[in-house]
Amino acid sequence: MAKQLIIVESPTKAKTLLRFLGNKYHIEASYGHIRDLPKSKMGVNEETLDVDYVIPKDKVKRVNELKKLSEDATKIILATDPDREGEAIAWHILSILQGQAEIESDTKKTKSKKASAKAPKKKAPVKLKNIEYERIVFHEITEHAIKEALKSPRKLDLSLIDAQQARRVLDRLVGYKLSPLLWRKIRTGLSAGRVQSIAVRLIVDREREIEAFKSEEYWSIDALFSVPNSKPKEQILASLLKINDKKMSVKTEEESTRHLEQIKKAEFQITNVVKKEVRKYSIPPFTTSTLQQTGSNKLGFSAKKTMMLAQSLYEEGLISYMRTDSVNLSEEAIAAVRSFVSTEYGQQYLPEKPKYYKTKSKVAQEAHEAIRPTDVNKTPSEMSTSLEKDQHRLYSLIYNRFIACQMKEAIYDQTSIDITSQNVQGKYLFRAVGRIIKFDGWLKVYGIEADTEETKDTKDAEKDGESESEEGQIKENMRLPDVQVGQDLTTEQIKPEQHFTQPPPRYTEAGLVKALEERGIGRPSTYAPTISTIMDRKYVEKEQKALKPTPIGIAVNDFLVQHFPNIMDFSFTADLEQELDDIANGDRQWKPVIKEFFDPFSLKITETQEKAERVKVATEDTGEMCPQCNNPTIIRYGRFGKFISCSTYPDCKHTAPFLNKLEGAACPKDSGQVIMRKTKRGRSFYGCANYPKCDYASWTKPGVEQLSESQ
Predict the structure, then answer these.
(1) Higher model confidence: residue 522 or residue 105?
(2) pTM of the predicted model, to two decimals?
């Protein structure tokens, strides 16, 4: 009996739908994109921007299977993901079933220059099949969501398709034009991308900030005071905050010693005591960006790994769609979580009214939801046996964040004590600030140690003197003695300490995602692939969790900044992203947007080819000599990363593998040099340089900490 054919992207998603819909429908997967731009040529007409889509050879079998299944189906239902990429996949599927497709030619066959210069022959018009189809969209794979979507089908959204097509064409034009230029001016095999190049620029700019940074000395002074006649003996640890009513600033040891002598002579008295309640409000549910950041900070996952795990949880029907920049929640989801909080934690944890969060992103799709579990009753403990370890860790993070976002604020009892010097030259004000949690609220679920990196985004929402607005360092979970203004204190100990200002840190993956999002560059679907791409191209490498530019990455960045300032400008790139969003919203046509960018860009390519000088990539001396010609050896960057080469290449062609040596660490088996290696899947581990003679290998640094799985 003929059935309606539902087509999704992945087999896992197909199985989940089958679980809810049974045998009423025939459900098949396309296995991602089944039509795309060709690999062997640009596939875009530079004048008209007409696009030549083809079926990749590895997708021909699947395409033929879907064609055959569609011929027997009573209707085609396109159920791909609810974003631009999903809409485009649905459009490509429909186009193929209608007969608009050709198979990609063999990329190994090359035409002569004479033949390739000829204008392509016009194709005869194809008579298209009239396919009856529907497009359905759901943001979570649950029985209710799917059945509701089937009740409200629509046609394809051409604006979303145009926006995806515009991004794909734009990136293809930039890549195909810039890459050959980089081959001529820097090194063969290089490539460039619009968003990726901006990401590299952020990392290079930060590295130069670090290199240019000049550290400055400064001193802090802490004092331990005791409360006379207190039993048991009560003490207050306070920090010097002000000198002569001005913020403390001690730059040298001599200054510190001079103030120390005065402080030792001084008598101290309590001059102010402030007691108050401080409220810490819950943070919003996850967006793609915040999930990637927290996945990195809390779990040590790369952005790519976080999205891979989130995709699997979505396709299993456990979380809502994982590519979103909205913190919006459906009324049904809010009602379900409020009921759960009341039942599981008690009415005291439930706010009087539901909590609604405002999305900071100007281009967020408010119709979409934040990332949340699809069923609050599927608790992390219940799912522990059915999920793999890392899936479970990410699910727990998403689940707990969702529950916490609809719970009452945490309440602290906070005390601030000012201690001021008496009868000495100069006025010294020490301050101690301590707080004790009075009611844990949302922290009961999300953890008392809720990440500073996450919560600092919520400062605007915090009230009643939250910690960040206080002067003085807050000591968590520390109760200060019950003292009164005017009470004298005894100085027990004074501790000066030397410090040096630190340069800004290198970006981590979490920090880079945040920086891109803040500048409006890229969208939820692009953060993880952007980071993966710049690392795969060897423009950036990871040292522990930090992203560091390579010499080739610096050379490419500097060349692009010099000759293509528009492409490398943060505001220009963000404005272009906004124009793509305008296309998605139906406010602009995609071809004029691309032409407006491409025409001057193409002229700049021609000009740079003629005028720009070839760039020499900086090299790093190894400190060792070439075994063949006794000249210095250097570190070069090739297609597969670092390698050792003779500095006189091509006169001497000596090369050797680069060993990432761990200084100061010896192999526990044969005392050989310990080096960092990578598995085939890219995970770092420590091994002996004498392998295979010595088989020592470890996930942990000898005598130190375990490597993060994100490395």
Answers:
(1) 522
(2) 0.84
